[in-house]
Amino acid sequence: MTDDKYGRSDSYRVAVNPRVPDDGRTPDGRPKGRRSKAAKKAADLDDLKQEVQMDEHKIPIEELYARLGTNPSTGLTSQQAREILERDGPNSLTPPKKTPEWVKFCKNLFGGFSLLLWIGAVLCFIAYSIQAGTFEEPPDDNLYLGAVLAIVVIVTGCFSYYQEARSSKIMESFKNMVPQYAIVIRDGQKLHLPAEEVVAGDVCEVKGGDRIPADIRVIQAQGFKVDNSSLTGESEPQTRSPELTNENPLETRNLAFFSTNCVEGTGMGVVINTGDRTVMGRIANLASGLEMGETPIAREIAHFIHLITGVAVFLGVTFFVIAFILGYHWLDAVIFLIGIIVANVPEGLLATVTVTVHETEDPDDPSYILCMKGAPERILDRCSTIFINGKEKVLDDEMKEAFNNAYLELGGLGERVIGFCDYKLPTDKYPPGYPFDADEQNFPLTGLRFLGLVSMIDPPRAAVPDAVAKCRSAGIKVIMVTGDHPITAKAIAKAVGIISEGNETVEDIAQRLNVPVEEVNPRDAKAAVIHGSELRDISPDQLDDILRYHTEIVFARTSPQQKLIIVEGCQRLGAIVAVTGDGVNDSPALKKADIGRLIFDNLKKSIAYTLTSNIPEISPFLLFILADVPLPLGTVTILCIDLGTDM
């Protein structure tokens, strides 16, 4: 093993710089093909699923300085920083591949039922062309019908694309998680740089209110606390200090992670990882690299489309044949075919599904709302009104006294109480883009509207056991996955009924029989509590056995990668998996899961409603062909009815 001029070992350079030259060949000298690229992608994804392996938090700080070629007083030189930036690339997350907008538009315009209507429009235009070549004054019915069909498909397709685009814009707001600027020391001077230019080895300063610009090893701290909730799910601010407190990099105090927030104090650290090599970058790449299977809602909609398409085509062809046999002109028979297809296809379904699935904020309201939380007595002092039953009322001394008494009573129970208030800022004084400054406090701090108190306690809510019991009665297997300590997780699981009374874990059986845990057959235990460190060392087959043979399972001290592995294990056994969670640490598991909500029921009701008009619309065509009853509904009329009721 060799060292470069900055003291970095070969293994370190390989770990942090995977961008090696690509000669287009595999390691054994063969040209790369599609299979090798697919295998490489799978291997990369498997690598991302591995636990975070790093030693930068454990080695002596002087050794880390030597490895990174930096100095805690003067930082990197400008030349070093340029070389490292060229080698590692910018300190930013690689955006996932996006579907081109024109592809999305075409899918909305030609997907599903729209294709049937396009075929109907083309048939109408063909029929009109034949009539125009046959008669001197051809009827315009087919031309009008084809134009109406085309307009209907274009309008519904554009509406669906617009709804999808609005959702995409909201997802773009997550880019704000990336810090914009950072203070680093280079050539002995403090520089204010764009966060993308921060490199491994930079000495970085952070203070309360800043986002951490990269993964850093803390070398100085004064009351330094960070909010890791987006990464680990821990709601309380976590203290950071130069001391190593845990072998696990996610739990030690001497590391602060990219895109988390500094909420208190000041700190200084040396950058150890940037961009995609950060812990946040690994999680983002893990989520974006997953192959997304069809969700249950997508499968049901696709099945519905295939079913209705089959029925529409079958009835249309049947009517065409019957009309032709009964002596109708073949062009009239084609019109019957188109009429049946139009009557069966719910033209407004695409818009119905889109509006049901996408519920977004109102973009027409540009005003800001100031929100504040804190100690109840301080929040109450800043408020002059209160929001009750949808109305704003004056907050008098009697109400303040009642809230203070409630606050003291809840505090006496050992609960933490937080007060909340808000204030709708007038758009004339605070227009869109107004530069709010928390230090200058250029916004109102008095005359606010009190919203209420929130009391928090660690024990689970009273409704949770009932929810777990209902899931069990519905045949749902409830698995608890948490970052808590196994003892805490087990106690909570027993309290809410995830581990039923009388069901024992391997440890419980060993304690009851007074034998070592190793002598107990795991299959004798109905319940299991699995530590994240155990999960790290077991094979997929062993995980499948745990999921298969234990009816009640708790996974404790789990990482984002392990949550994803658990979801994949359940899916290997043929289960449909729903995951609930918040924070970046849950995103890989949330994305991989078969996510379903009560929106399913509403969507099914909407689809069922769109089908209620099909039979009344088909019946006139049937009576017209079989009994010569005059046709009360034309194809254009049916279109108007469908669009009016469906949308």
Automatic annotation (TrEMBL):
Pfam families: Cation_ATPase (PF13246), Cation_ATPase_N (PF00690), E1-E2_ATPase (PF00122). Residues 1-45 are annotated as: Disordered. It comes from Amblyomma americanum. SUPFAM superfamilies: Calcium ATPase, transduction domain A, Calcium ATPase, transmembrane domain M, HAD-like. Keywords: ATP-binding, Cell membrane, Ion transport, Membrane, Nucleotide-binding, Potassium, Potassium transport, Sodium, Sodium transport, Sodium/potassium transport, Translocase, Transmembrane, Transmembrane helix, Transport. This is Na(+)/K(+)-exchanging ATPase. GO terms for cellular component: plasma membrane. One of its GO terms (biological process) is intracellular potassium ion homeostasis. It is found in: Cell membrane. InterPro entries: ATPase_P-typ_cation-transptr_N, ATPase_P-typ_cyto_dom_N, ATPase_P-typ_TM_dom_sf, ATPase_P-typ_transduc_dom_A_sf, ATPase_P-type_domA, Cation_transp_ATPase_P-type, HAD-like_sf, HAD_sf.
